[in-house]
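#data-curation
PF: Archiving a pair of folding outputs for the training set. Convention for this channel: one message per protein, sequence first, C-alpha coordinates after, nothing in between. First:
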Amino acid sequence: MDLAIEGTVAFARSGRRAGCVTGDRLRRKLRFTFDDGTSRPLDFEELVAATARTARDELPTPDPGLLRRWVAAELERD
Protein backbone atom coordinates (compact mmCIF):
# COMPACT_ATOMS: atom_id res chain seq x y z
CA MET A 1 0.00 0.00 0.00
CA ASP A 2 1.48 3.30 -1.02
CA LEU A 3 -1.24 5.75 -0.02
CA ALA A 4 -3.67 6.48 2.78
CA ILE A 5 -7.00 8.09 1.93
CA GLU A 6 -7.33 11.42 3.71
CA GLY A 7 -10.18 11.71 6.19
CA THR A 8 -10.68 7.95 6.67
CA VAL A 9 -8.95 7.42 10.02
CA ALA A 10 -11.45 6.02 12.53
CA PHE A 11 -11.35 4.47 15.97
CA ALA A 12 -13.23 1.53 17.46
CA ARG A 13 -15.82 2.47 20.09
CA SER A 14 -13.42 1.20 22.75
CA GLY A 15 -10.76 3.63 21.53
CA ARG A 16 -8.23 0.80 21.54
CA ARG A 17 -8.07 0.19 17.80
CA ALA A 18 -7.75 2.43 14.76
CA GLY A 19 -7.89 1.99 11.02
CA CYS A 20 -8.10 3.80 7.72
CA VAL A 21 -8.49 3.16 4.00
CA THR A 22 -5.21 2.58 2.18
CA GLY A 23 -4.51 1.99 -1.46
CA ASP A 24 -2.12 0.50 -3.96
CA ARG A 25 -1.78 2.94 -6.87
CA LEU A 26 -0.26 0.42 -9.26
CA ARG A 27 -2.87 -2.29 -8.67
CA ARG A 28 -5.69 0.26 -8.18
CA LYS A 29 -6.94 -1.54 -5.08
CA LEU A 30 -8.25 -0.17 -1.79
CA ARG A 31 -8.11 -1.88 1.61
CA PHE A 32 -9.17 -1.30 5.18
CA THR A 33 -5.90 -1.26 7.12
CA PHE A 34 -5.80 -1.54 10.91
CA ASP A 35 -3.28 -0.52 13.54
CA ASP A 36 -2.41 -4.15 14.31
CA GLY A 37 -1.05 -4.58 10.77
CA THR A 38 -4.01 -6.53 9.42
CA SER A 39 -6.10 -5.46 6.47
CA ARG A 40 -9.02 -6.60 4.38
CA PRO A 41 -10.17 -5.59 0.90
CA LEU A 42 -12.63 -2.76 0.44
CA ASP A 43 -15.52 -4.13 -1.60
CA PHE A 44 -15.84 -1.73 -4.53
CA GLU A 45 -19.36 -2.97 -5.34
CA GLU A 46 -20.44 -2.12 -1.79
CA LEU A 47 -18.91 1.35 -2.16
CA VAL A 48 -20.83 1.89 -5.40
CA ALA A 49 -24.04 0.70 -3.72
CA ALA A 50 -23.52 3.15 -0.84
CA THR A 51 -22.97 5.95 -3.34
CA ALA A 52 -26.07 4.94 -5.29
CA ARG A 53 -28.15 5.35 -2.12
CA THR A 54 -27.05 8.99 -1.92
CA ALA A 55 -29.74 11.44 -3.00
CA ARG A 56 -29.11 12.75 -6.50
CA ASP A 57 -28.87 16.37 -5.35
CA GLU A 58 -26.12 15.37 -2.89
CA LEU A 59 -23.91 13.63 -5.45
CA PRO A 60 -21.81 16.69 -6.34
CA THR A 61 -20.86 16.93 -2.66
CA PRO A 62 -20.53 13.33 -1.45
CA ASP A 63 -20.70 12.46 2.22
CA PRO A 64 -17.16 13.08 3.51
CA GLY A 65 -17.72 10.85 6.53
CA LEU A 66 -18.91 7.77 4.64
CA LEU A 67 -15.53 6.01 4.42
CA ARG A 68 -14.62 6.97 7.99
CA ARG A 69 -17.88 5.43 9.28
CA TRP A 70 -17.23 2.36 7.15
CA VAL A 71 -13.75 1.98 8.66
CA ALA A 72 -15.28 2.30 12.15
CA ALA A 73 -17.81 -0.42 11.30
CA GLU A 74 -15.03 -2.70 10.03
CA LEU A 75 -13.16 -2.21 13.32
CA GLU A 76 -16.21 -3.51 15.20
CA ARG A 77 -16.41 -6.72 13.11
CA ASP A 78 -13.68 -8.50 15.05
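PF: Second:
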Amino acid sequence: ITYEYDVSNDNFEKNSKEAIDRAVKDFAGTLNTLRIYQVNPEKNYSMFMAHMEVQQIYVMVAATPGTQDYFGSYRWSPIAKASPPGGNPSCYPSYLLHYGKSVAKAFAPYNHTLGLVMANEVMQASLIAAPCVKQYVADLKNWMRSKHDRMRLLPLAYAAADGAYVGEKGQTDKPKTLVDANEFATAKIQGLLCGDTMVNGQMQSSIDIYLVNEYRWCPGSKYSDTYAHLLAMASGVPIVMGLGEYGCDKNPPRDFAMIPYLFGDSTTSQGFSDVYSGGFTYSFGEANLGTGTFFPLF
Protein backbone atom coordinates (compact mmCIF):
# COMPACT_ATOMS: atom_id res chain seq x y z
CA ILE A 1 0.00 0.00 0.00
CA THR A 2 1.00 3.65 -0.27
CA TYR A 3 1.34 5.84 2.80
CA GLU A 4 1.71 9.59 2.44
CA TYR A 5 2.14 10.75 6.02
CA ASP A 6 5.47 11.41 7.74
CA VAL A 7 7.13 8.30 9.21
CA SER A 8 10.22 9.97 10.65
CA ASN A 9 11.02 9.58 14.34
CA ASP A 10 9.31 12.96 14.86
CA ASN A 11 5.90 11.49 14.07
CA PHE A 12 6.08 7.72 13.81
CA GLU A 13 5.25 6.71 17.38
CA LYS A 14 2.61 9.35 18.03
CA ASN A 15 0.87 9.38 14.63
CA SER A 16 1.87 6.81 12.01
CA LYS A 17 2.56 3.61 13.93
CA GLU A 18 -1.04 2.97 15.00
CA ALA A 19 -2.40 3.47 11.48
CA ILE A 20 0.21 1.22 9.89
CA ASP A 21 -0.25 -1.48 12.54
CA ARG A 22 -3.99 -1.42 11.88
CA ALA A 23 -3.31 -1.92 8.18
CA VAL A 24 -0.98 -4.82 8.89
CA LYS A 25 -3.68 -6.45 11.01
CA ASP A 26 -6.51 -5.77 8.54
CA PHE A 27 -4.53 -7.14 5.60
CA ALA A 28 -3.99 -10.39 7.53
CA GLY A 29 -0.52 -11.14 6.25
CA THR A 30 -1.06 -10.02 2.64
CA LEU A 31 0.62 -6.62 3.07
CA ASN A 32 4.31 -6.95 2.30
CA THR A 33 5.45 -3.54 0.99
CA LEU A 34 4.82 0.08 1.95
CA ARG A 35 5.54 2.95 -0.43
CA ILE A 36 6.39 6.22 1.31
CA TYR A 37 6.50 9.66 -0.31
CA GLN A 38 7.70 12.03 2.42
CA VAL A 39 11.45 11.67 3.01
CA ASN A 40 13.79 14.34 4.31
CA PRO A 41 17.22 12.72 4.82
CA GLU A 42 18.02 15.28 7.51
CA LYS A 43 15.45 13.46 9.66
CA ASN A 44 15.78 10.03 11.29
CA TYR A 45 13.61 7.10 10.14
CA SER A 46 15.17 4.39 12.29
CA MET A 47 12.07 3.69 14.40
CA PHE A 48 9.87 3.22 11.35
CA MET A 49 12.39 1.03 9.55
CA ALA A 50 13.00 -1.11 12.64
CA HIS A 51 9.26 -1.63 13.04
CA MET A 52 8.84 -2.55 9.38
CA GLU A 53 11.60 -5.13 9.74
CA VAL A 54 9.79 -6.71 12.69
CA GLN A 55 6.58 -6.75 10.65
CA GLN A 56 8.48 -8.25 7.67
CA ILE A 57 7.42 -5.42 5.38
CA TYR A 58 9.55 -4.00 2.57
CA VAL A 59 9.74 -0.23 2.06
CA MET A 60 9.78 1.63 -1.27
CA VAL A 61 11.29 5.06 -0.67
CA ALA A 62 10.78 8.33 -2.54
CA ALA A 63 14.03 9.89 -3.76
CA THR A 64 12.73 13.20 -5.02
CA PRO A 65 11.68 16.00 -2.67
CA GLY A 66 8.42 17.89 -2.57
CA THR A 67 8.08 21.65 -2.26
CA GLN A 68 6.62 21.65 1.27
CA ASP A 69 8.47 23.06 4.28
CA TYR A 70 8.88 19.48 5.54
CA PHE A 71 11.72 18.99 3.05
CA GLY A 72 13.78 21.89 4.39
CA SER A 73 16.36 23.23 1.95
CA TYR A 74 15.67 20.29 -0.37
CA ARG A 75 12.26 21.77 -1.24
CA TRP A 76 14.00 23.99 -3.77
CA SER A 77 15.36 21.05 -5.76
CA PRO A 78 12.58 18.86 -7.17
CA ILE A 79 12.68 17.80 -10.82
CA ALA A 80 10.71 20.39 -12.80
CA LYS A 81 7.70 18.96 -14.63
CA ALA A 82 7.43 21.74 -17.20
CA SER A 83 9.21 24.77 -18.60
CA PRO A 84 9.68 27.57 -16.06
CA PRO A 85 8.32 31.06 -16.89
CA GLY A 86 11.76 32.27 -17.91
CA GLY A 87 12.14 29.50 -20.46
CA ASN A 88 15.23 27.97 -18.85
CA PRO A 89 15.09 24.31 -19.94
CA SER A 90 17.07 23.00 -16.95
CA CYS A 91 15.01 20.59 -14.83
CA TYR A 92 17.81 19.00 -12.81
CA PRO A 93 18.66 21.24 -9.83
CA SER A 94 22.24 20.81 -8.65
CA TYR A 95 21.14 20.04 -5.09
CA LEU A 96 18.93 17.14 -6.21
CA LEU A 97 21.81 14.67 -6.51
CA HIS A 98 22.93 15.54 -2.98
CA TYR A 99 19.39 14.77 -1.83
CA GLY A 100 19.39 11.42 -3.65
CA LYS A 101 22.76 10.43 -2.21
CA SER A 102 21.58 11.31 1.29
CA VAL A 103 18.40 9.26 0.91
CA ALA A 104 20.38 6.30 -0.45
CA LYS A 105 22.87 6.47 2.43
CA ALA A 106 20.03 6.63 4.95
CA PHE A 107 18.09 3.63 3.62
CA ALA A 108 20.68 1.36 1.97
CA PRO A 109 21.75 -0.18 5.31
CA TYR A 110 18.29 -1.72 5.69
CA ASN A 111 17.87 -5.06 3.93
CA HIS A 112 14.12 -4.47 3.61
CA THR A 113 14.53 -1.28 1.56
CA LEU A 114 13.05 -2.47 -1.73
CA GLY A 115 14.26 0.45 -3.81
CA LEU A 116 14.08 4.18 -4.51
CA VAL A 117 11.46 5.96 -6.61
CA MET A 118 13.51 8.57 -8.43
CA ALA A 119 10.58 10.62 -9.70
CA ASN A 120 6.80 10.45 -9.69
CA GLU A 121 4.60 11.56 -12.60
CA VAL A 122 6.92 14.28 -13.90
CA MET A 123 6.59 13.34 -17.58
CA GLN A 124 2.88 13.74 -18.21
CA ALA A 125 2.32 17.36 -19.14
CA SER A 126 5.69 17.52 -20.85
CA LEU A 127 8.68 15.35 -21.73
CA ILE A 128 11.06 18.15 -20.72
CA ALA A 129 11.86 16.28 -17.51
CA ALA A 130 12.73 13.01 -19.29
CA PRO A 131 16.47 13.63 -19.82
CA CYS A 132 16.75 14.98 -16.28
CA VAL A 133 15.18 11.87 -14.78
CA LYS A 134 17.46 9.74 -16.94
CA GLN A 135 20.58 11.65 -15.86
CA TYR A 136 19.57 11.70 -12.20
CA VAL A 137 19.15 7.92 -12.27
CA ALA A 138 22.50 7.43 -14.00
CA ASP A 139 24.32 9.77 -11.61
CA LEU A 140 22.93 8.13 -8.47
CA LYS A 141 23.45 4.61 -9.77
CA ASN A 142 27.06 5.35 -10.74
CA TRP A 143 27.67 6.93 -7.34
CA MET A 144 26.23 3.92 -5.50
CA ARG A 145 28.31 1.58 -7.63
CA SER A 146 31.45 3.53 -6.69
CA LYS A 147 30.54 2.86 -3.04
CA HIS A 148 29.71 -0.82 -3.56
CA ASP A 149 32.14 -1.93 -0.86
CA ARG A 150 30.33 0.24 1.70
CA MET A 151 26.67 0.24 0.67
CA ARG A 152 24.08 -1.81 -1.15
CA LEU A 153 23.26 -0.88 -4.74
CA LEU A 154 19.55 -0.13 -4.43
CA PRO A 155 17.15 -0.74 -7.35
CA LEU A 156 15.92 2.52 -8.87
CA ALA A 157 12.39 3.09 -10.16
CA TYR A 158 10.31 5.63 -12.04
CA ALA A 159 6.59 5.98 -11.29
CA ALA A 160 4.57 7.18 -14.27
CA ALA A 161 1.05 8.51 -14.57
CA ASP A 162 -1.16 6.22 -16.62
CA GLY A 163 -2.60 8.65 -19.11
CA ALA A 164 -2.42 10.10 -22.57
CA TYR A 165 0.02 12.87 -23.43
CA VAL A 166 -1.62 16.19 -22.56
CA GLY A 167 1.16 18.70 -23.21
CA GLU A 168 1.94 21.86 -21.29
CA LYS A 169 -0.68 24.53 -20.68
CA GLY A 170 -0.91 26.70 -23.77
CA GLN A 171 1.27 24.40 -25.86
CA THR A 172 0.15 24.22 -29.48
CA ASP A 173 2.73 21.85 -31.02
CA LYS A 174 1.73 18.66 -29.21
CA PRO A 175 2.92 15.50 -31.01
CA LYS A 176 -0.16 13.98 -32.62
CA THR A 177 1.31 10.48 -32.48
CA LEU A 178 1.57 10.39 -28.68
CA VAL A 179 -2.02 10.73 -27.55
CA ASP A 180 -2.80 7.18 -26.46
CA ALA A 181 -1.86 6.25 -22.87
CA ASN A 182 -0.31 2.93 -23.88
CA GLU A 183 1.74 4.44 -26.70
CA PHE A 184 2.89 7.24 -24.43
CA ALA A 185 3.95 4.75 -21.76
CA THR A 186 5.94 2.81 -24.35
CA ALA A 187 7.71 5.99 -25.44
CA LYS A 188 8.62 6.85 -21.83
CA ILE A 189 9.99 3.37 -21.14
CA GLN A 190 12.01 3.36 -24.35
CA GLY A 191 13.41 6.80 -23.55
CA LEU A 192 14.41 5.88 -20.01
CA LEU A 193 16.16 2.68 -21.15
CA CYS A 194 17.66 3.70 -24.49
CA GLY A 195 21.44 3.58 -24.79
CA ASP A 196 21.85 1.28 -21.80
CA THR A 197 22.74 -2.39 -21.53
CA MET A 198 21.81 -5.10 -19.06
CA VAL A 199 24.67 -7.00 -17.42
CA ASN A 200 23.94 -9.97 -15.18
CA GLY A 201 20.29 -8.97 -15.03
CA GLN A 202 20.95 -5.35 -14.05
CA MET A 203 20.71 -2.16 -16.07
CA GLN A 204 23.99 -0.26 -15.89
CA SER A 205 22.81 3.35 -15.85
CA SER A 206 19.01 3.40 -16.11
CA ILE A 207 15.98 2.44 -14.06
CA ASP A 208 15.50 -1.11 -12.81
CA ILE A 209 11.75 -0.81 -12.20
CA TYR A 210 8.96 0.95 -14.11
CA LEU A 211 5.85 1.63 -12.06
CA VAL A 212 2.49 2.61 -13.54
CA ASN A 213 0.17 4.71 -11.36
CA GLU A 214 -3.03 3.11 -12.61
CA TYR A 215 -6.66 4.19 -12.12
CA ARG A 216 -8.33 2.32 -14.98
CA TRP A 217 -10.01 -0.36 -12.90
CA CYS A 218 -13.27 0.88 -11.37
CA PRO A 219 -16.44 -0.95 -10.29
CA GLY A 220 -17.75 -2.88 -13.27
CA SER A 221 -14.45 -2.85 -15.17
CA LYS A 222 -13.34 -5.83 -17.23
CA TYR A 223 -9.84 -7.22 -17.67
CA SER A 224 -10.09 -6.89 -21.45
CA ASP A 225 -10.72 -3.15 -21.17
CA THR A 226 -8.07 -2.40 -18.54
CA TYR A 227 -5.20 -4.66 -17.55
CA ALA A 228 -5.07 -6.45 -20.89
CA HIS A 229 -3.88 -3.18 -22.44
CA LEU A 230 -1.25 -2.71 -19.73
CA LEU A 231 -0.02 -6.24 -20.37
CA ALA A 232 0.32 -5.58 -24.11
CA MET A 233 2.12 -2.30 -23.40
CA ALA A 234 4.73 -4.12 -21.28
CA SER A 235 5.56 -6.69 -23.95
CA GLY A 236 9.32 -7.01 -24.35
CA VAL A 237 10.22 -4.65 -21.49
CA PRO A 238 13.40 -6.12 -19.91
CA ILE A 239 13.03 -4.58 -16.44
CA VAL A 240 10.62 -5.13 -13.55
CA MET A 241 7.10 -3.78 -14.12
CA GLY A 242 4.62 -2.98 -11.36
CA LEU A 243 1.76 -0.68 -10.40
CA GLY A 244 3.08 2.27 -8.38
CA GLU A 245 -0.47 3.15 -7.34
CA TYR A 246 -3.77 1.52 -8.15
CA GLY A 247 -7.36 2.32 -7.39
CA CYS A 248 -10.29 4.18 -8.92
CA ASP A 249 -10.52 7.96 -8.97
CA LYS A 250 -14.30 7.96 -9.11
CA ASN A 251 -16.80 7.94 -6.25
CA PRO A 252 -16.53 5.27 -3.51
CA PRO A 253 -17.07 2.50 -2.60
CA ARG A 254 -13.72 1.11 -3.67
CA ASP A 255 -13.62 -1.99 -5.81
CA PHE A 256 -10.78 -4.49 -5.41
CA ALA A 257 -11.86 -6.89 -8.15
CA MET A 258 -8.46 -6.42 -9.81
CA ILE A 259 -6.65 -8.29 -7.02
CA PRO A 260 -6.80 -11.77 -8.64
CA TYR A 261 -5.14 -10.35 -11.76
CA LEU A 262 -2.39 -8.64 -9.78
CA PHE A 263 -1.57 -11.43 -7.37
CA GLY A 264 -3.15 -14.61 -8.75
CA ASP A 265 -1.35 -17.36 -10.62
CA SER A 266 -0.70 -17.19 -14.35
CA THR A 267 -4.02 -18.79 -15.28
CA THR A 268 -6.13 -16.69 -12.93
CA SER A 269 -4.44 -13.44 -13.96
CA GLN A 270 -4.48 -14.30 -17.68
CA GLY A 271 -0.72 -13.81 -17.71
CA PHE A 272 -0.75 -10.39 -16.03
CA SER A 273 1.04 -11.53 -12.87
CA ASP A 274 3.78 -13.09 -15.02
CA VAL A 275 4.75 -9.59 -16.18
CA TYR A 276 3.66 -7.22 -13.41
CA SER A 277 5.17 -7.79 -9.97
CA GLY A 278 2.20 -6.62 -7.93
CA GLY A 279 1.35 -3.06 -7.00
CA PHE A 280 0.70 -0.47 -4.30
CA THR A 281 -2.91 0.21 -3.33
CA TYR A 282 -3.59 3.95 -3.19
CA SER A 283 -3.97 5.35 -0.58
CA PHE A 284 -3.71 4.45 3.09
CA GLY A 285 -2.93 8.01 4.08
CA GLU A 286 -5.37 10.83 3.42
CA ALA A 287 -3.26 13.44 5.23
CA ASN A 288 -2.22 15.06 1.94
CA LEU A 289 -5.44 14.47 0.01
CA GLY A 290 -7.83 16.93 1.64
CA THR A 291 -11.49 16.51 2.54
CA GLY A 292 -13.80 14.73 0.14
CA THR A 293 -11.05 12.52 -1.26
CA PHE A 294 -12.00 9.47 -3.29
CA PHE A 295 -9.21 7.61 -1.50
CA PRO A 296 -10.16 7.42 2.19
CA LEU A 297 -8.35 5.22 4.65
CA PHE A 298 -9.43 1.66 4.06
